[in-house]
Design goal:
Number of strands: 17
Distance between the termini: 35 Å
Radius of gyration: 21 Å
Number of helices: 11
CATH topology of the largest domain: Uridine Diphospho-n-acetylenolpyruvylglucosamine Reductase, domain 3
Helix content: 25-40%
Number of domains: 3
Structural class: alpha+beta
């Protein structure tokens, strides 16, 4: 554990001079996500440790290779949390990978995305320059939008040497309710509850059962629990953690796992065969025999998009992400050029 920024900088500078492609890696828990990358490995795990943490200021800064579990444990000691509920997927997940992937767990509709809590970053770009963007308070907007670009960039713009994040108090009470409902009534119920001041922190449907997580003050959780009804799961239920980290039996099937992003009231698509509905209907995990082009066409026709999130071996040639419109692709390429003119950082991870 420590600061190895100089060592990493030397490696990137040498690769820049030699035009050698690099594959950035942290815990490698999300190595499956995105298109395949070939390149010399840059191991960021040694660049770790919490740099500063002010519980009263609700701000934490940590090096990119810091284990996510270590940060969550530290926050829990002070009754605080990362509100985007980052997926781990495997042991060794890092805070840099959590931000770079841009992924969020079941709390996302109510707690926000990684970009929403990102206050600042220290970045090692494709020329070996160490750049600082943003700050450690929300009102310091200098470079703030540049920082947010790093959430979801998957290391294609630079290695996250350090991130500063807004954290929030953890709710004093959490309860999970479950009820037997078919899909359409369950979606309707989720939409109805979302329009009310219900302290929701999770809303998912799977295999004929609606799961609702309530988080907040004791009085509010208790009152809504009685009003909503349903079966109360044990306090130590692992359902949400297993959903977050794709450990439910549903995710162990053969085939490509698709992630559909759609408006919560979107009706079931023809391609949806085996499905888990999350985010109160806005995120759907799916296995389907329908071909990739048809899946993406169906999602796009309804204003959404589809990702081949975790590809089966037979689908290795499918792009993870849907093709971008020409203008948007041009903007992505120009941004890549500014941060990584030789194109050596995670080449092809987002687009070819």
């Amino acid at each position: 554990m420590g600061d190895i920024a100089s060592q990493l900088q030397q490696q990137v500078r040498a690769a820049f001079d030699a035009q050698t492609p690099l594959r950035l890696r942290g815990g490698d828990s999300k190595a499956f996500y995105g298109n395949h990358v070939e390149g010399e490995e840059v191991d960021l795990r040694g660049h770790s440790g919490v740099v500063s943490y002010e519980p009263t200021e609700l701000v934490l800064s940590a090096r990119g290779g810091t284990p996510l579990a270590e940060i969550e444990a530290l926050l829990a000691e002070h009754g605080q949390q990362l509100t985007f509920e980052p997926p781990h997927f495997a042991e060794g997940a890092t805070i840099g990978g959590a931000i770079a992937s841009g992924l969020a767990g079941p709390l996302r509709p109510w707690g926000g995305a990684p970009r929403d809590v990102l206050l600042g970053v220290k970045l090692l770009d494709g020329q070996g320059r160490i750049l600082n963007f943003g700050g450690q308070v929300m009102k310091n907007v200098a470079g703030y939008d540049v920082s947010r670009l790093m959430a979801g960039a998957q290391g294609t713009l630079g290695a996250l040497l350090e991130v500063s994040l807004k954290v929030l108090p953890a709710p004093p009470k959490t309860r999970t309710l479950v009820m037997d409902l078919n899909r359409q009534p369950a979606l309707k119920r989720m939409r109805e509850l979302s329009r009310q001041p219900v302290p929701l922190s999770g809303a998912a449907w799977h295999d004929g059962r609606l799961y609702l997580r309530l988080s907040g003050a004791h009085a509010s959780v208790n009152a809504w629990r009685e009003r909503i009804g349903g079966e109360r799961l044990a306090e130590n239920t692992t359902f949400w953690q297993r959903l977050r980290d794709q450990q439910l039996d549903f995710f162990k099937q053969d085939g490509t796992l698709w992630r559909l992003s759609l408006a919560g009231n979107t009706p079931r698509l023809d391609c949806e065969q085996q499905v888990i509905v999350d985010w109160a209907g806005a995120q759907r995990w799916m296995f389907s025999d329908v071909n990739a082009h048809a899946i993406r066409e169906q999602a796009a026709a309804l204003g959404g998009h589809a990702q081949a999130f975790r590809k089966a071996e037979r689908d290795a040639d499918i792009d993870t992400f849907a093709p971008m419109p020409p203008l948007l692709l041009q903007l992505h390429r120009e941004l890549k050029q500014r941060f990584d003119p030789q194109g050596i950082l995670n080449p092809g991870r987002l687009f070819q």
